[in-house]
């Protein structure tokens, strides 16, 4: 009898351990072991374009003109964004830009103010 958890993606019972991860051979989904998830979350550090570590509530400045998808608007170089919130994923900064509204930014296009 296996004590390994079922796959959270497809509920397969044929999971196996691979180092600090569980792997499902049926759907190829990989996930961290319970104790390892917190350690992985703590290791994730988001930095700006110059390597400065960003934190929730920081102010940043945009370093490149950014076109807004689905709109003719542009976020200009030098736009200051206050009180950012860090989130996971490709666009790792959630913020509100004055005159434009809520949007997500990539940390590679900002510098810490």
From TrEMBL:
Residues 3-32 form the Protein YjdM N-terminal domain. It comes from the Bacteria. Residues 47-112 form the Protein YjdM C-terminal domain. This is Protein YjdM. InterPro entries: YjdM, YjdM_C, YjdM_N. One of its GO terms (molecular function) is hydrolase activity. Keywords: Hydrolase. It holds the Pfam family YjdM. Belongs to the YjdM family.
């Amino acid at each position: 009898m296996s004590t390994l958890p079922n796959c959270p993606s497809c509920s397969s019972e044929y999971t196996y351990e691979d180092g600090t991860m569980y792997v499902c051979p049926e759907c190829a989904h990989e996930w961290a072991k319970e104790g390892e998830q917190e350690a992985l979350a703590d290791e994730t550090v988001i930095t700006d374009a110059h390597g400065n570590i960003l934190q929730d509530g920081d102010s940043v400045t945009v370093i490149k003109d950014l076109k807004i998808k689905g709109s003719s608007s542009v976020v200009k170089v030098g736009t200051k964004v206050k009180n950012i919130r860090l989130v996971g994923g490709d666009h790792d900064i959630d913020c509100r830009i004055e005159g434009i509204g809520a949007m997500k930014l990539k940390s590679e296009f900002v510098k810490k103010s």
